[in-house]
Design a protein that fits this description.
alpha+beta, five-stranded mixed sheet
């Protein structure tokens, strides 16, 4: 709770270690895949592999089939949520979070290139047409867009399908999202797929508290960046919650808020190397990312729609990594190579620990390869 004393100031390393602890990146947690997904309030999932790699870096004993089976059994789903991007979340969070973020999704649609292409179309009519089409049977997004175009002739089918995803809670059905299966996105409504209605509470307060548990301490700007809520909505939620939160400040004096009893990690807590997938939410969920990405490296990890695959040394981003697979007709003994590209020279101990972590990851993702190789690329 709030007190009259001056809020404590947290340096970058305290914020870093606290974030890593809450993100399960200081030590792999003895959790199930579903429990970890729930704790993290979902995983960004624009591509198939990132949620699997994110969980491997966070869960003790994680197996790829743990998540694939949860998708097939409808215990987790893929749906557009925070920042209007596809996230993998538990079934319960799908039903709870989508109403909270619905207005933000519609706002994002209106500001997007797709929304501009659909100017003049009644959103309620488009949502009703989408539901009618999907009640008949699940459809790929491409087929859905073409069928909507039959009603709104002359309009862009891709834009219509994107708008349908924003206006109606559409989940992507397996095998989409299943490890090494994929396939085109085939959609159904969340209510039909899960057999339950959406929650009715649209207030973001409970969601903000969960964000703080997984990403805090944080500012209103951080909440807004993670969620995609309008800035005013993020500020108002924190203002309502303020009597229940602990005020803190970062090294620059900016206000941060946190759960009253949430632990803050010591700045000298050891942080082992970690390999993170592209789009990992730990990189995308703060307005000020210096708690994990040194400012001098921010541009080097930027990708067209998020961040590249990165690795952490001493808790901070220190380079990127890639996996190169042999061509389809290569010999059975062809190597799968994981290349590590540090931004700066690594110590011998850090290099050895990172090499071991990379070998463990290769054993997971290239189990059937004839040879597996880890190599370092010299800093530019």
């Amino acid at each position: 709770m709030n007190t009259a004393t001056e809020p404590a100031r947290l340096d970058a390393r305290t914020l870093n270690r606290t974030l890593l602890a809450r993100q399960l990146l200081l030590a792999r947690a003895p959790l199930t895949a579903i429990a970890a997904v729930e704790h993290l309030v979902g995983l960004q999932a624009q591509a198939i592999e990132p949620p699997y790699l994110a969980l491997w870096s966070r869960i003790d004993g994680f197996q790829l089939d743990d998540l694939s089976r949860a998708l097939i059994e409808r215990r987790v789903v893929r749906i557009a949520l925070m920042r209007s991007t596809i996230h993998l979340v538990t079934a319960g969070d799908c039903l709870a979070l989508r109403p909270v973020l619905q207005a933000a999704l519609e706002r994002h649609l209106g500001a997007s290139q797709y929304g501009r292409r659909l100017k003049g179309i009644d959103g309620a009519a488009l949502a009703a047409a989408t539901r009618a089409l999907l009640e008949a049977e699940p459809r790929t997004t491409a087929d859905l867009g073409q069928r909507l175009r039959r009603r709104w002739r002359g309009r862009d089918a891709e834009a219509l399908a994107y708008a349908a995803r924003a206006l109606v809670p559409l989940v992507q059905l397996p095998p989409r999202g299943v490890w090494r299966q994929g396939g085109p996105p085939r959609c159904a409504t969340a209510e039909a797929w899960l057999g339950q209605p959406l929650a009715t509470d649209r207030a973001p307060d409970a969601t903000v508290l969960r964000y703080l548990a997984a990403f805090g301490p944080a500012s209103a700007a951080d909440v807004q960046v993670w969620s995609g809520l309008p800035p005013a909505a993020a500020r108002d939620a924190l203002q309502r919650l303020r009597p229940r939160l602990r005020p803190l400040r970062d090294a620059a004096g900016r206000e941060l808020l946190d759960l009253p009893d949430a632990a803050l990690s010591a700045p000298d807590t050891p942080a082992p190397p970690r390999l993170l997938p592209e789009y990992d939410n730990v990189m995308l969920s703060h307005a000020d990312r210096s708690r994990i990405v040194p400012d001098r490296h921010r541009r080097r990890i930027a990708a067209a729609n998020g961040v590249r695959r990165t690795f952490l040394i001493d808790g901070f981003v220190a380079g990127t990594w890639t996996v190169t697979r042999p061509p389809p007709r290569a010999s059975a003994g062809a190597a799968v190579t994981l290349a590590l590209a540090p931004f700066e020279r690594l110590s011998r101990a850090d290099r050895a620990a990172l090499h071991d972590e990379a070998e463990r990851l290769l054993a997971l993702v290239a189990a059937g390869a004839g040879r597996r190789t880890v190599r370092f690329i010299a800093p530019a």
